[in-house]
Design a protein that fits this description.
This is Actin-related protein 2/3 complex subunit 4. Pfam families: ARPC4. Keywords: Actin-binding, Cytoplasm, Cytoskeleton. This protein is α+β, with helices and mostly antiparallel strands and about 170 residues long. It has a single domain, classed as Yope Regulator, Chain: A. The chain has four helices and four strands, in the order H-E-E-E-H-E-H-H. The protein has a four-stranded antiparallel beta sheet with strand order 1-2-3-4. A hairpin with a 3-residue loop joins strand 1 (about 55-60) and strand 2. The longest helix is centred in the C-terminal third of the chain and has 38 residues, at about 130-165.
C-alpha cells in the first residue's frame, strides 16, 4: 500500500514492521538444527536453483517484502516529488551504504524498480537478533524521510538567501 492509503506515517511503518516480523520469524534461523547441510548462498543469491518465494507482500510503490525459508528481501521505492528530492535520495543512499557495510544487509544494487533493497539472511537474524534487525530497518526508513525533508528545507533556504543577495530584496 502506498503511504497515502494509510491513516498516518506511523501506520505505514507499523505495517512494514509487522511484515518483517512475520517473514523473519518464519525463517529457519537455527541452521545447525536442520538435517540438510548448510548452503553457502541464500535462495535469493543462488542462481542455480529456482527461487521458491514463500510469500510476497507488495505495498504498492513503496515497499516489497519477499521471504524464503532462509532469507527475506525488503525493497523500498522512496517517494521523490521533484529532481531535488531525487538527488538528495541518491546521495543519502550512497552515504548509508558506507554505514551499513558492517551489517551486510543493504544490497549495493537494489531490486529493479526500487531505490534500496535489504537482504536479510537467517545468519544475520541469529547474530544480531530479530528485534535489532527489524528496528534498524524501520529506523532507516524513518531517517530517509527525515533527512530528505531537512536537506530540502536547507537547500531552499540557501537558494532563497542567494536570490535575495542577487536581487537585493
Amino acid at each position: 500500500m502506498t503511504t497515502s492509503s494509510f491513516a498516518s506515517r506511523k501506520d505505514y511503518l507499523d505495517s512494514i514492521e509487522k511484515g518483517l516480523r512475520e517473514g523473519l520469524t518464519a525463517m529457519d534461523i537455527d541452521d545447525k538444527a536442520s538435517a540438510v547441510p548448510r548452503r553457502y548462498k541464500a535462495f535469493f543469491e543462488d542462481s542455480s536453483h529456482r527461487r521458491v518465494v514463500l510469500w510476497k507482500a507488495p505495498m504498492k510503490e513503496c515497499c516489497l517484502l519477499e521471504a524464503t525459508s532462509d532469507s527475506i528481501r525488503c525493497s523500498f521505492r522512496l517517494k521523490k516529488q521533484d529532481e531535488l528530492e531525487t538527488i538528495i535520495v541518491r546521495e543519502f543512499l550512497t552515504t548509508q551504504q558506507q554505514l551499513w557495510k558492517d551489517y551486510r544487509m543493504l544490497q549495493k544494487i537494489p531490486l529493479e524498480g526500487h531505490d534500496v533493497s535489504f537482504f536479510i539472511t537467517n545468519r544475520q537474524v541469529r547474530d544480531y537478533g530479530l528485534e535489532e534487525v527489524v528496528a534498524s530497518i524501520v529506523a532507516f526508513v524513518t531517517s530517509v524521510e527525515k533527512e530528505k525533508s531537512d536537506m530540502k528545507i536547507g537547500v531552499n533556504a540557501r537558494a532563497r538567501q542567494a536570490a535575495r543577495g542577487i536581487f537585493g530584496n
